[in-house]
Amino acid sequence: MNKKVKEIFVSFQDVSKNYRDVQALDQISFKIKEGEVFGYIGPNGAGKTTTIKILVGLIRDFRGDYHFKGKMMPESVAIVSQMLGYLPQSVSFQEWRTVDQALKTFGELSGLKNEKIEHEMKILLELLDLSNVRYKKISELSGGMIQKVGLVQALLHNPNFLVLDEPLSGLDPASRFKVKSIIKGLSRKGTTIFFSSHILSDVQDIADRIAIIKNGRILNTGSVDELKSELSAVSAVEFQLISEFNNIKELGAISGIRHIEQPSANKLFVHINDDFDVDEVCNQVLKYLIKRNVQVKKFTPVEHNLDEVYLRYVKGGQN
Amino acid sequence: MKIFYLLFRDELSGFYKSKVMLILWIGLPLIAIMSFVFLPESEIDISLGIATSSIVSGLGGLLAAMMLAIHIIHEKSRNVYELFLIRPVKKSYIILAKFFSVFLCVALACLLAISLGFSIDFLFLNRFSSHLFENAIDSFIISLSIIAIDCALGALVGIIASSVIVGIILVYIAYNFASLSVILPIISKMDHPVLMAMVSGFVLSSLFLILAIWFFKKKQF
């Protein structure tokens, strides 16, 4: 009973945004609690970046209500800018600057003293393996390095609220791992994090809760487990056979079967439609196999993974 | 004002060592020296300082306008300003910092070239007169007016234009009209041409800057 009730940090209520005739966001609503890692997934052009630009105060003409720590936005945008760390999707710096110059400028613009900038820069550059490029010009860096410099500028002033637009895109596997662990570490320290991605495994690894967006509308919000449970708990049944089976076309005609995969002659994955009873369909399959003298070694239910949940929503399943 | 100073200092440190500025730092004074070396003395019937000032302000102003427009178009298209605008930075500060840093750099390059022209007048061409210093000041004021207009024009075009080619064309067209507003009072022998140049410079550059800031504020990132 002593569990601290976390404050709502960000609240979007029926937020819409049009670009002339194009509806980029259509009445989207979500809440992010303090200290939460909120993943935002959707295909390209779904409205992820527009949401983020409203969130960080770059887009101010939108409809609906956006509250940041209880303050109405965009009127109180100054509060966000004090607490915000932001990494854009394609981060870009003035190319004549060195990494050192760019970070010092952004540190100063965020109100940090020189000693603090120096201290934080040293730690973060080392953490992201950028110490050796500190005095190099931005124009000499690779895309992945620029992305990491972007992350340093976002973290330099220890923001309470971190907004990351596709933070892992363009990074090599080692850097991806490092950035993920930084995000997890910040989350443990209580930083509220909003991040978008189209890479599901990243979201699954990091996020406490997820929103799925498509065509400017949020299709569902919840934890990974909640989203999975929105679909039936079991998506498919794996049948391991002792004897070989080669008539999946006929088996597929059983009512309730969506499709069948056969990775080998004695293994079947029977995918079942959500509105059918798994046990009933399973029973029908077993009867069919026994009738044709196909011996079954074992059968195991296969649960949905996030990929399936995502594809189900995004590739036209639910609207 | 602290934020504006930071941006101005940063832009200045970027511009003064840029390739275009390198051309201006070296190229403009070189024009003064080349005029002295290659033009026969008898053919120069006006002061070398005045001749230099008209050449360098025109050339420097055009290059400054182009440089500013191209920089802004390039930075705009790469969303460079996002990281500034999520911090407590006003859009007007970004434009003004760019304008003043380029203006200052080009003005200094011109001052260097004009001083060199008048020094040659004084030291080698024996054109010493009581009006030499006065002429030098007048030439510099006229040059400053032209450069101010051109820089403001470059900022405005940079904000409006969406591609570098369009930007260059717009700068070139507008530059010719804008420079005329300063030069016309001088060549038509109006009263107080220097004062007129100052007023034109101030009014037109202010107008262009206000428009640039207005368009920039309307722009969504």
List the main descriptive attributes of the protein structure presented here:
heterodimer; A: 319 residues; alpha/beta; Rossmann fold; Alpha-Beta Plaits; B: 221 residues; mainly alpha; 81% helix; 0% strand
In short:
The complex is a heterodimer of chains A (319) and B (221). Chain A is built from 11 helices and 14 strands. Chain A is an alpha/beta fold and 319 residues long.
What does this molecule look like?
The complex is a heterodimer of chains A (319) and B (221). Chain A has 319 residues and is of the alpha/beta class. Chain A folds into two domains: 8-225, Rossmann fold (3-Layer(aba) Sandwich), CATH 3.40.50; 232-303, Alpha-Beta Plaits. Chain A has eleven helices and 14 strands. In chain A, the strands form three sheets. A six-stranded mixed sheet of chain A has the order 6-7-8-3-9-10, sandwiched between helices. In chain A, strands 2-1-4-5 form a four-stranded antiparallel sheet, with helices on one face. Chain A has a four-stranded antiparallel sheet with strand order 12-13-11-14, with helices on one face. In chain A, helix 3 (99-109) crosses helix 4. The two termini of chain A are 38 Å apart. Chain B has one domain (2-218). The model of chain B has no long low-confidence stretch (mean pLDDT 83).
